[in-house]
Prior knowledge:
ANK repeats lie at residues 66-98, 129-161, 192-224, 230-262. By secondary structure, the chain is an all-alpha fold.
Amino acid sequence: MRTASLLLIGCLCLVGAGGASRAEEPKRTDPAVLKALHTTFADGKDDAILKLVKQNPSLVHDADESDCTALHYAARYGRVETAKWLIDQKADVNSVSYNRYTPMHVVSNAAVAKLLIKAGADLNRKDAWGNTPLQRAAEDEHADVAEAVLASGVALDLRSAIMLKKRDAVKKMLKDDPKLARRPSEGSNLWGSITPLGLAAGRKDKEIVQLLLDAGADVNEGTFMPNAGGEATALTNAVWAGDKEIVKLLLARGAKTDVTGGKFYPNILDYARKHSSQEIVESLEKAGAKVSGQRK
């Protein structure tokens, strides 16, 4: 009898708890508002966007089909007042969207970056490609965001220094530890070589390319491109960037020419003949480059 009574009480508690949970369930954002969230933040006026989020307070926590929150978009499009309001309403500054991006990975200006940092943004969190917020800011050429991150105490790494063209910092890092120049790329990448040398070539920074080569960088270290089925090297990046001087420098240092030219170009010469200057094409051919299907 006592057991039956306890079971009955337990069931009543569960029903009561369930009822309370349903009563307290937060209101969800209108799906139409969520679907248009990206476009709204990209194209709307600042005051209209702020008004929208205030009228839809559930946007503080809700996300669209890409798992992006309003704070992601406020960060991406530099909507300072909206970002401030969302943060004041306890929006999660470390919420994760597609590709594991947090708002700090997509922030486009220093003002919003500083708000996120002050609110506790995780500056060591890595996205799906292994990038920290500092590295993402450097790659996207948001120098002011990168400086805000550095000012918070985050240490400058070689990759970010290369992307930000901080030549003196790169020179010091390589002097202190030349092995940094020979660090292999971590994993694969859709957009070319991510070795230090590849990054410098893609940034068209001949001075840093020279520093890395002098420090012992492997001119033929590759990064696998899953969408191209081959490896991209610093030469790939230099040809894509259209920098004839870096192309010549890499070839002079022994760069191999049997590397991918991208998704639709099995060999780098295939790409060059379609998109590069005649001087780059001639440099590649002189070094022995062949088009796909042609005997080497």
